[in-house]
Amino acid sequence: MSDQTPNKYIDSFALRCILIAIGWLSIILGVIGIFVPVLPTVPFLLLAAACFARSSERFYNWLINHKQLGPLIHDYLSGTGMPLRAKISALILIWLSILISAFILVHLFWVRFLLLGIATCLTFYLLRLPTTPPAE
User: Whose CA is closest to 15, among 5, 7, 27?
Assistant: First the structure.
């Protein structure tokens, strides 16, 4: 009879290494996204958290408890949503970057249509997220 408990972490060493590498790459891209408005920060940090949750408890706890990065994803992970200011900023940046890309940089109709569809889907997704109440 085996006394092993189910492990939430992946047993394959190679897969764990790949997930850890993707997690660190996502953190690097997320940090770059803090300074580059077109590059999203929170989705990369969420990807890193997901990778670390399946591969390394130490890295996951480090990310979640990080002084600067942790608060960016804490509300999303806890299910409390996103601050109104962050939603408005995200929507403005999404639409600004998509419109510039679609009508200045891209000349193919189907790519323009695809970009506008992505922006629309992201808008609906962000609007459906709960909005955290303002801090008093």
Answer: 7
The predicted model scores a pTM of 0.64
Expressed as residue numbers, the domain containing 91 is 80-136
Extended beta strands in 8-136, E state: 82-83, 131-132
3-state SS class at 131 = strand
DSSP summary character for residue 8: S
Digit-coded pLDDT (tens) for 95-107 = 988 899 888 988 8
CA distances for 109 relative to 15, 38, 100, 103, 117, angstroms: 40, 22, 14, 10, 12
Q: Are residues 56 and 85 in the same domain?
A: no
Same domain, 34 and 9: yes
